[in-house]
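Need a sequence for this fold. Nothing fancy.
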């Protein structure tokens, strides 16, 4: 049996944690499993490296930042190899160059293109535990790239896919996927299993979307579990469909800003004009609401807070060609979503959610729906109250 495991930064934050994880890996190895382990940088090391770079040059190039940041993961795999050696077991640490993990050329947020498995398979056949530096790749000219925050998850899933591993365990500081954040909602329940589609809608909790998307595309069996305990986690795979749960959980996204383009001359193609301008600058748009009027229309949409200023600048620079009166924006907002594969066959889910918000005096500003998700835009100050109220309303269905 071949398994891929990933351990996050808190799991390897210090010598004690490294030795604990080393013993967990050793236990699996002694049980006869072949193991590939992907590691993140220790603790908040990535943030500290970024701070050091800013002290030297606040305008440091993305290429040099990638050269710096990739050292964090390389420290982790080397230290883990040493820890496993101290237990009398064979292990080898490898970086992106050594495993041939090629990526696109975009520094800071590159995408995985290909993984050459020859070296990893050779090391496994020699009996080694293979430790791989997550978060990094090499581009077409041989430069190191980083794959974006949280991308060690993506590295692990990609390796599980190309190696055809029996499972991919994401070992982190939570012990599974919950119906809501248990730190906010004390009654939240841990899910035994969940489908890929549901996980994609809730992955902001414990797994980056890119990893969830890749797992679905390649049918990788994922397990989200704690790196601190031996408790069973949550399984995510195509066979995990919980038919009797029409709401699997709730999620909150605070990284949201609303942009409203007001007084647009209503004509065919104006929406295309606005959103094509944003798309050319790689600005992703989520919820969209168009309010028609007499000869004019208003269009509101949401973007990430990081993209808000760029979106405002693009629209302002094209004000005459688009033809609008003014732009408003608001980043004191949050998206609250309920997710469940069984919602489509369960009438009244939306009204129940809206009732919970109404009973607590929380105004809904925008709404979007899909077959397995209902999302509302609310004021950020109401987030915790809204999440508690909605979770309580659906507690019987979770």
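Here you go.
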């Amino acid at each position: 049996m071949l398994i891929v495991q990933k351990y996050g930064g808190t799991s390897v934050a210090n010598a004690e944690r490294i030795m604990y994880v080393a013993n967990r890996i050793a236990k699996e190895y002694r049980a006869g499993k072949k193991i590939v382990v992907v590691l993140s940088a220790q603790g908040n090391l990535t943030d500290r490296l970024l701070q050091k770079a800013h002290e030297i040059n606040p305008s440091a190039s993305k290429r040099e930042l990638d050269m710096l940041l990739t050292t964090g993961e390389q420290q982790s795999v080397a230290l883990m190899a040493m820890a496993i050696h101290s237990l009398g077991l064979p292990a080898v640490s490898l970086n992106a160059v050594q495993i041939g993990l090629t990526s696109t050329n975009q520094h800071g947020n590159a995408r995985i293109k290909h993984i050459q498995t020859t070296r990893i398979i050779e090391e496994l056949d020699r009996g080694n535990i293979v430790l791989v530096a997550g978060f990094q790749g090499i581009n077409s000219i041989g430069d190191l790239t980083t794959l974006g925050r949280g991308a060690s998850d993506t590295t692990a899933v990609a390796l599980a896919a190309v190696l055809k591993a029996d499972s991919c365990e994401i070992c982190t500081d939570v012990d599974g996927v919950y119906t809501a954040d248990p730190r906010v909602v004390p009654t939240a329940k841990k899910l035994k299993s969940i489908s890929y589609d549901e996980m994609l809608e809730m992955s902001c909790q414990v797994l980056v979307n890119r990893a969830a998307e890749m797992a679905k595309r390649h049918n990788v069996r994922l397990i989200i579990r704690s790196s601190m305990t031996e408790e069973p986690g949550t399984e995510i795979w195509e066979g995990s469909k919980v038919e009797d749960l029409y709401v699997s959980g709730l999620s909150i996204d605070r990284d949201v800003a609303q942009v409203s383009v007001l007084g647009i001359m209503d004509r065919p193609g104006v929406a295309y004009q606005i959103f094509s301008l944003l798309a050319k600058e790689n600005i992703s748009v989520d919820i969209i609401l168009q309010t028609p009027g007499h000869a004019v229309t208003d269009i509101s949409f949401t973007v990430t807070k990081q993209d808000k200023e760029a979106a405002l600048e693009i629209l302002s620079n094209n004000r005459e060609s688009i033809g609008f009166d003014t732009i408003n924006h608001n980043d004191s907002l949050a998206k609250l979503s309920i997710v469940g594969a069984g919602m489509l066959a369960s009438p009244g889910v939306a009204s129940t959610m809206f009732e919970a918000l109404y009973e607590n005096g929380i105004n809904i500003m925008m709404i979007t729906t899909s077959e397995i998700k209902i999302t509302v835009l609310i004021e950020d100050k109401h987030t915790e109250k809204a999440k508690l109220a909605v979770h309580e309303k659906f507690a019987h269905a979770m």
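For context: The CA atoms of residues 11 and 21 lie 7 Å apart.
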